[in-house]
């Protein structure tokens, strides 16, 4: 008799499928990693003037390994190489294989730079531009090397990779420093601990209650280290593999407990950073938040109509800063805008510590996951011409410009942004030249210098989007191209999810523009629309974003420097409970987002749109 769907232990089946996929993925990634051959012929001795070696405490790099590493870097065209010890311990080896980019032999431009934290080979030019002190003779901790790798990759985005060094001698791992190493890699140790403990609990429950499926899942988990790292031809040979495999559940439990304890002790530095900002925010909030808003306007900033209605009212669900924000919609043209809008002081207050300061690492991680989207944006121009000089307006840290070189290697990419980050992008080499300031104010000096201008998720942040379009029309010569990408306020999910629809992005988004309005505005400025993309521009974030915003609303950060300043036990417990309960919700939301993205690609109806226009010769 065939079992009904309700008789199938789906939790155990899903766990088994996930473990199988993870095991196969780890084995494949291990096979792709290059292995240094110390016996291979090289061009000579280690060129100390061109390359530098940075090592952790107790790590010994012999001359043969050093020569082999330099030869590999020069042969592969790399500027930064993280050397993975051939005897790396089992726990760190498995963790590394989970974290490594698919192409870690040479990382993707936007991928996180993550390695083993033992030894780094760095080209002189990269070390000089990054401003990092080589620190010859300085004993560094592995956590510091993880931080250095992330920093160095920013200055060699297309020239960073990893390689296994069988002869690299390293000291035994220090379990007490594991939490610090995870934090240095930008990983949320608290959530990782919760997920690890929840996973162990699920496996125990499956093994006891789900018969063969549960036993198979538990057995695969137990044997996974040997399945991934065992065998005579494996390039990684942990000395503790047999013992780590035999005691895996117990070692995992001990590791999770240690990381949880370390998370509590390691949170002191982060809390101190927040507390240092508290007096600054307290002084700003002493007079209330009214001064952060301009008077409400009675008409639509796009068409002038007075037929306005409230679309949503929502607090700051991103950072949890005080204030409440209203988006109104024009009944005639459909334009959605913040009303009352933020004043200049308000913009400064609500943007602070989001992309820079406290939020810099989180923003960098988000932008670093968008490599495929950046390349798709650049490729939209391929059927219509070859760009020579491209200005990306609102470039931020320059992630798009850096990635777009894979599509247009012969194009010069410059960036414009209000943030000082654009200057850092120039130092990194992500943009050829940086322009810092407001686009309309700088436009006069940029006339006819670029044949392509892009604005990716930029117009919605501006106070006067029509003035930004005027600036683009002034800068571009006849035949020049303008590419714009924006969230789509006509998306169906904007009404289904209401204030928890992430692209509302309050309080930062000032204007959400229907594509018909943008099309007409461009045509009136002498542009011809060549192409539109909807499904291809969709960002897979609707449901995951809704879970995130809901969790933030239910349990805001108890230590936020703009908050009350009292992280009571109750608040900490509530936040931990909410985020624990949110974990399965995030998993379900990720699945819904994947399905939504597939539908969006087929139906051309996503949460964003992309538009390409050409300035007509008559307009010149």
From TrEMBL:
<protein>
    <submittedName>
        <fullName>Class I SAM-dependent methyltransferase</fullName>
        <ecNumber>2.1.1.-</ecNumber>
    </submittedName>
</protein>
<keyword id="KW-0489">Methyltransferase</keyword>
<keyword id="KW-0808">Transferase</keyword>
């Amino acid at each position: 008799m065939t079992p009904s769907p309700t008789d199938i232990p789906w939790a155990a089946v899903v766990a088994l499928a996930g473990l199988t996929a993870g095991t196969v993925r780890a084995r494949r990634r291990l096979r792709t990693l290059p292995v240094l051959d110390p016996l291979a012929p090289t061009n000579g001795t280690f060129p100390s003037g061109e390359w530098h070696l940075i090592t952790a405490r107790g790590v010994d790099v012999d001359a043969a390994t050093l020569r082999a590493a330099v030869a590999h870097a020069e042969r592969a065209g790399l500027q930064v190489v993280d050397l993975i010890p051939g005897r790396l311990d089992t726990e760190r080896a498995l963790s590394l294989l989970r974290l490594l980019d698919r192409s870690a032999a040479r990382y993707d431009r936007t991928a996180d730079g993550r390695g083993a934290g033992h030894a780094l080979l760095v080209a002189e030019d990269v070390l000089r531009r990054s401003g990092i002190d080589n620190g010859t003779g300085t004993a560094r901790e592995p956590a510091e090397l993880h931080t250095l790798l992330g920093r160095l990759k920013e200055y060699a985005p297309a020239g960073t990779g990893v390689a296994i060094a069988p002869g690299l001698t390293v000291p035994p791992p220090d379990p007490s420093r594991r939490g610090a190493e995870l934090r240095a890699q930008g990983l949320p140790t608290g959530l990782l601990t919760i997920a690890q403990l929840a996973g162990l609990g699920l496996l125990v429950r499956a093994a006891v209650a789900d018969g063969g499926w549960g036993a198979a899942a538990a057995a695969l988990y137990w044997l996974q280290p040997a399945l991934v790292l065992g065998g005579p031809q494996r390039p990684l040979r942990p000395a503790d593999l047999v013992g780590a495999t035999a005691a895996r559940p117990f070692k995992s439990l001990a590791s999770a407990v240690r990381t949880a304890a370390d998370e509590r002790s390691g949170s002191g530095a982060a809390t101190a950073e927040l507390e240092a900002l508290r007096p600054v925010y307290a002084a700003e909030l002493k007079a209330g938040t009214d001064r952060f808003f301009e008077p409400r306007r009675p008409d639509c900033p796009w068409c002038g109509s007075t037929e306005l209605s409230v679309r949503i009212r929502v607090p700051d669900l991103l950072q949890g800063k005080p204030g409440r924000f209203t988006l109104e919609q024009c009944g005639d043209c459909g334009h959605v805008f913040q009303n009352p809008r933020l004043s200049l002081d308000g913009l400064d207050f609500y943007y602070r510590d989001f992309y820079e300061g406290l939020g810099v690492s989180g923003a960098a991680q988000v932008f670093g996951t968008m490599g495929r989207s950046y390349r798709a944006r650049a490729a939209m121009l391929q059927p219509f011409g070859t760009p020579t000089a491209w200005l990306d307006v609102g470039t931020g840290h320059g992630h798009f410009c850096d990635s777009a070189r894979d599509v247009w290697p012969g194009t010069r990419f410059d960036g414009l942004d209000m943030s000082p980050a654009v200057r850092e992008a120039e130092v990194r080499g992500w943009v050829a030249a940086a322009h810092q300031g407001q686009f309309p104010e700088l436009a006069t000096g940029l006339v006819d210098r670029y044949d392509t201008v892009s604005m990716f998720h930029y117009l919605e942040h501006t106070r006067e989007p029509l003035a930004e379009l005027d600036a683009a029309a002034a800068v571009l010569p006849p035949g020049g191209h303008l590419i714009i990408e924006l969230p789509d306020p006509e998306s169906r999910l904007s009404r289904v999810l209401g204030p928890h629809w992430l692209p509302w992005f309050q309080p930062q988004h000032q204007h959400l523009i229907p594509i018909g309005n943008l099309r007409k505005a461009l045509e009136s400025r002498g542009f011809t629309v060549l192409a539109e993309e909807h499904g291809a521009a969709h960002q897979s974030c609707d449901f995951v974003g809704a879970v995130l915003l809901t969790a933030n609303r239910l349990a805001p950060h108890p230590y936020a420097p703009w908050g009350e300043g009292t992280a009571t036990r109750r608040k900490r417990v509530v936040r931990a409970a909410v985020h624990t309960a949110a974990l399965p919700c995030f998993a379900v939301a990720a699945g819904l987002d994947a399905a939504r993205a597939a539908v969006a690609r087929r139906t051309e109806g996503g949460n964003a749109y992309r538009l390409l226009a050409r300035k007509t010769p008559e307009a010149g």
